[in-house]
Write a structure and sequence with these properties.
19 strands; alpha+beta; 4-stranded antiparallel β-sheet; single chain
């Protein structure tokens, strides 16, 4: 069953919604342009600093207790890992040495030995040795933060699994012979190494406890990466300043300072880029990028299909619960979603229809979603009838749902507004709330929302990562806060960890994706194309589907 866009796909209501949003953006832009003059031709502004605009703030600087994707972006810059993906050409995911110069594995695939480089230091000059590596893993496992522990769930579970053989050799013993284990060690969050001396001087760590000082304060000497944090202003309109770590063992950043600012207003971000006060827009709404096409000194580049996805997740509680009635409602909502209309008008065509939890182009991906669910309001209404939700004879409303999307994410707001207009046609009332990023999980976990916007950026290139992170009940509750729980699906995902033969392992993901389509925990909205928006004087960006931007490689140079 193919998804096609007909001439009548966009209703008058949808057209009005889109027009209003775009008019607001344009009017705001006209207003602000009086105050923001473009950068003079040929001039490179702020030559010794990279200014990055993001729509969300940084919540945690602690690699053991990350909160958001914006935290991971920073962790990539300030913490080194045993192994890295940095240094790969665009799109490549070869594992490269970092803090570990070499490694080997036992014949049973469970014991890994890492030989550490001897010149690595923290940002205050303290040696980065085996003691620091052991401390990190003991601390992460003890702290037990869901946003980092989901990476190692079922792989590392016991404090003491990492041991020092000598000052520059460590041994890590895994619970199972997990084929993609080395890939887990590349992550700036969860696997980034912090200075144990600084952590201990600022409260140490305890079981199931987040140390707010490590998460939210600037601590000299904590960092192991090419940059260190020197300023952190939290809240709306805040910023984070990174500067070169002078003790870093590797190549020093080409530009010594990075300032990441978070601004919710799209028009302000656009005009700061046009003026040259911002060098890079991180995760900018693709639909609004057309306003920057042709702007003097600005480049808008499409770098191809990413593995990043936007989806709408079900709470797993009534009326989208885990019984047969709830399953029918969830299926109905999948049929009620105007996929192509939203792809075209909410995302401007900067993406493709998502095929499920394991994205198109990644290992182990099979399409059971687009072949099952098409935009079909008649089918959606039939399923709601089967579930016992029939229209009220007076109001015509058969079902009321509570939805949420994050503040400042314009394409997600537009997605919900278009969907809302379609749901009214079958008697479903969708009440919407725009919510601060930090409250999205909390509200879903508390049962205050039925359908919520969620997004996923991959951490490593293996189908288990996608299946576990996006379908397993452990992660669904731990990260977005959903109560969805299919024990059969959980068991099937767990079993993939035990198969070491690559081809056999890939086959195991077929029935997982088939069951996930039959008993959906989310609506798959879009698989993004990467839109890189920057000043033309900024160079050195390397795209990788599982690596955030590496600022240390970037430099400025006049066109």
């Amino acid at each position: 069953m193919s998804r096609t866009l007909s001439k009548g796909a966009v209703t008058k209501i949808q057209a009005t919604i889109i027009a209003v949003i775009l008019v607001i953006a344009v009017v705001a832009g006209v207003y602000y342009v009086w105050f923001y003059a473009p950068a003079p031709e040929g001039e490179v502004k702020n030559l010794n600093a990279i200014y990055v605009e993001s729509y969300r703030d940084v919540v945690s600087l602690d690699p053991a207790t990350p909160k958001m994707a914006s935290d991971a972006l920073v962790d990539w810059q300030i913490y080194d890992t045993l192994i890295t993906l940095k240094g790969n050409p665009p799109g490549e995911t070869t594992l490269l040495p970092c803090l570990a110069e070499s490694w080997d594995c036992s014949s049973d695939g469970k014991t890994w030995t890492f030989n550490l480089r001897k010149d690595a230091k923290f940002s205050n000059g303290d040696p980065l040795n085996a003691t620091a590596i052991v401390y990190h893993f003991d601390r992460m496992l003890t702290t037990n933060c869901p946003n980092s522990m989901y990476i190692y769930a079922g792989v590392l579970s016991e404090v003491g699994c990492c041991q020092a053989i000598d000052d520059y050799t460590v041994k890590i013993t895994t619970d199972v012979a997990f084929p993609p284990f080395l890939a887990l060690l590349t992550l700036g969050f969860a696997s980034g190494i912090e200075n144990p001396n600084i952590v201990e001087a600022n409260g140490g760590y305890e079981t199931d406890w987040i140390n707010d000082k490590i998460a939210t304060e600037v601590l000299e000497g904590l960092y192991s990466g090419p940059y260190k944090v020197t300023e952190y202003v939290k809240g709306p309109g805040g910023h984070l300043t990174l500067e070169t770590n002078e003790y870093y063992w590797g190549s020093k950043p080409k530009i010594p300072k990075v300032i990441i600012e978070w601004t919710a207003e799209v028009s302000t971000r656009i005009l700061k880029l046009k003026k040259g006060d911002t060098d890079l827009l991180w995760r900018f709404p693709a639909t609004l990028s057309s306003d920057l096409l042709g702007a003097e000194g600005v480049a808008v580049e499409s770098l191809g299909l990413t593995w990043d996805q936007h989806f709408i997740i079900f709470s797993g509680l009534d009326p989208v619960g885990m019984d047969e009635k709830g399953k029918l409602v969830r299926q109905a909502l999948c049929y009620s979603f105007p996929y192509e209309t939203i792809l075209t008008y909410a995302y401007g065509g900067f993406g493709e229809s998502s095929i499920g939890a394991i994205p198109k182009g990644s290992p182990g991906a099979y399409d059971y979603i687009t072949t099952k669910y098409d935009f079909n309001l008649t089918k959606a209404a039939e399923l709601l009838d089967q579930a016992g939700y029939t229209p009220d004879p007076t109001t015509g409303i058969r079902l009321e749902l509570r939805g949420q999307y994050p503040l400042g994410a314009e394409e997600r707001k537009l997605t919900f507004l278009i969907w809302q207009s379609e749901l009214t046609k079958i008697g479903v009332k969708l009440d919407l709330r725009e919510v601060a990023w930090g409250l999205l999980t909390e509200r879903m976990r508390k049962g205050e929302v039925d359908v919520g916007s969620n997004q996923w950026y991959p951490d490593y290139a293996d189908p288990y990562h996608f299946a576990f992170s996006l379908l397993h009940s452990y992660c669904l509750y731990g990260i977005p806060g959903s109560h969805f729980n299919n024990t059969e699906l959980d068991s099937m995902i767990d079993n993939t960890m035990l198969e070491t033969d690559y081809d056999k392992r890939m086959e195991l993901f077929k029935p997982i994706q088939e069951l996930a389509a039959e008993d959906p925990c989310k609506i798959y909205v879009v698989q993004y194309k990467y839109i890189y928006i920057h000043r033309t004087w900024l160079h050195g960006f390397v795209y990788n589907p599982v690596v955030h931007a590496d600022f240390s490689l970037m430099y400025k140079e006049a066109d």
